[in-house]
Write a structure and sequence with these properties.
The structure is a single chain. By secondary structure, the chain is mainly beta. The strands form 2 sheets. Strands 1-2-3-6-5-4 form a 6-stranded antiparallel barrel. A 6-stranded antiparallel barrel has the order 8-9-10-13-12-11. The protein contains 3 helices and 13 strands, in the order H-E-E-E-E-E-E-H-E-E-E-E-E-E-E-H.
Length: about 210
């Protein structure tokens, strides 16, 4: 672990560095407001209409510390979403390598901070792209609606009954096993046999965004 990574994860008072603390190259803390809690949670960052997968390291009333590579520039207007936090407008306050400090346009209230602490579910990402499902050696093509660490929601009618095992082809670089979790009148959901890693999810979202921007 590099010295910088160590400073990000732990400061002298035992708390993680976030948006309210501008990192100092000399190692001196420059904290503006007290921090609330360390998360290490999945985050959805919107920058100029494009979504990015990030890690929310910590979050307090005035801002959040996230990790994203490549990071947005200082002064960029963004929206951030994580577990228990619906999309919140913010501005990039500082950047150090892949570490980014965000300042919220409006501070978070105690009820929102409590929801963040108590909500286990990570945000889902819009995924308007093709997916292929393989069940009993039969391949069917579908359109995804959204994608998360634990599964994918797909438009239309399912190719099998609830509980059926299947192979899910998200794209050429991401193929996973899963089962049909539930069905509705206009969509169905597949639960992955093992959660995606943040890297896998970030890669799938980045590849889709690159395709849509062509």
């Amino acid at each position: 672990m590099t010295n910088h990574a160590a400073r990000w994860r732990m400061t002298e008072d035992g708390m993680s560095q976030g948006a309210d603390q501008v990192p100092s190259r000399a190692g001196e803390e420059q904290r503006a407001t007290p921090r609330e809690r360390t998360l290490y949670a999945l985050g959805r960052l919107m920058v100029a209409g494009r979504q990015h997968v990030c890690t929310v390291r910590n979050l307090g009333p005035g801002g959040a510390g996230i990790e994203l590579d490549p990071p947005p520039a200082v002064g960029t207007a963004v929206t951030i979403e994580t577990r228990g936090l619906i999309a919140r407008a913010a501005t990039v306050r500082w950047v150090r390598d892949a570490m980014v400090g965000l300042s919220f346009d409006e501070p978070l209230g105690e009820e929102t901070l409590r929801a963040v602490a108590e909500t286990p579910r990570s945000p889902r990402f819009s995924y308007d792209g093709p997916v292929e499902l393989v069940t009993d050696a039969r391949l069917t093509e579908h359109r995804a609606i959204d994608l998360g660490l634990g599964g994918v929601r797909v438009a239309g009618a399912p190719p099998a009954d609830a509980g059926s095992a299947m192979e899910v082809v998200i794209d050429a670089e991401l193929v996973v096993r899963g089962k049909l979790a539930w069905t509705g009148s206009e969509a169905f959901a597949i639960e992955f046999a093992a959660p995606l890693s943040v890297r896998q999810l970030a890669g799938a979202i980045a590849r889709l965004e690159a395709t849509l921007s062509r």
